[in-house]
Amino acid sequence: MKWNWARRDRRGAIALVPGECHWLIAEGPAAEPALVAGGTITLEGGVFPPPPEGIRQLLSDKRVRWAVVAPLAVRGAIATLPALPDADLAQGTRWEAEKMFHVGDLDPVYDFEILAPATEMSASAAHLGLLIAVRRSAVNHWQEWTQRLPHPLRGLEPAFSAAIRAFCHFAKLGDRRERSFAGVYSDAGSAAAAVFARGRPLALRNLSVRIPRDGDPLPLHGEEGIRNLRETLLACEDRHPFLAIDGLCGMGSVDRDWLAQAARACQTDVLAAAPPPAGVPESMAASGAWFLPFGSLLAHGN
Fold first, then answer.
1. Which of the ends of the chain has fewer CB neighbours closer than 10 A, N or C?
2. What is the CA radius of gyration of the chain?
3. CATH class of 74-297
4. Number of other CB atoms surrounding residue 42 within 10 Å
5. Which residues of the chain are in CATH 3.10.20 domains?
């Protein structure tokens, strides 16, 4: 793949997982990023987060504005948000997140993102948004790490947010736009399932009943995760009588045997993984390593 540095409006995204750094560079609008380069760097030493020296050369060119995707433990939910001015919307979403998550004692950082604006929601004056809560101490830890990088970043976000954004993009492609499925995602910080129908997100649930109070990974295995997934799908079908889930699509570190077991319990099928967009290097396509950095490139800066 040739690197054409003639243009300067390039955005890069780095997804850090234990032992590896997956990265992509794109140009063009966030809604349809055109990928121009990508790859995987093996991180030595077994330390996580890794020493910045391992990716310093990648970040050294100022013509690329980089964002980092980190495996932070997250609580997330999909909710309808009022179509208000930005300042009022921020305050309203914080109140909604506090009501949903009940983790105020952990001094959390709340954030939100509009997944479907009110203008795209038929017969609705409300946005469809993603709400998240992250423990402040965990965010501070990663922010201190980014200060050791050679240049300021354009953003730092949980892997959870990038994954949901990538699933939203995937749900609008090809025949997925007319179908319903559950995207199941797991990483070192969060495990969740998001239900999509006709290209829109309907529901989101963390697949562990334990709130991530100490930053430990949420387990995505055994009966607990399957039970929560099944309850989520049944609740969606109760609210939407004509909804029929076509299958489960797993990305991230979701165990394939677990996914097959979950599909049998939910009486559905395992769908093929999300197809890589044009421009993803072959080395990243087969493993799904492109998923998180691509999701980050779709960000609109909320």
1. N
2. 19
3. alpha beta
4. 8
5. 10-70
Q: Does domain 10-70 have CATH number 2.60.120?
A: no
pTM of the predicted structure, to 2 decimals:
0.85
How do 126-135 and 180-186 pair as beta strands? unpaired
CA dihedral for 131, 12, 63, 146, sign (positive or negative): positive
Question: Where do the CATH 3.30.420.40 domains begin and end in the chain?
Answer: 74-297
DSSP state of 177: G
**Residues 51-61, mean pLDDT to the nearest whole number:** 84
- C-alpha distances (whole Å) from 164 to each of 5, 124, 126, 132 are 30, 22, 20, 11
pLDDT in tens, 224-260: 888 889 998 998 888 888 888 999 999 888 888 889 9
pLDDT digits (tens, 9 = 90+) for 80-99: 877 777 777 777 788 888 88
Q: How far apart, in Å, are the Cα atoms of 9 and each of 27, 65, 217, 255?
A: 6, 8, 36, 37
User: What percentage of the chain reaches a pLDDT higher than 70?
Assistant: 88
- Element at 293 (helix H, strand E): helix 291-297
Assign 146 to helix, strand or coil: helix
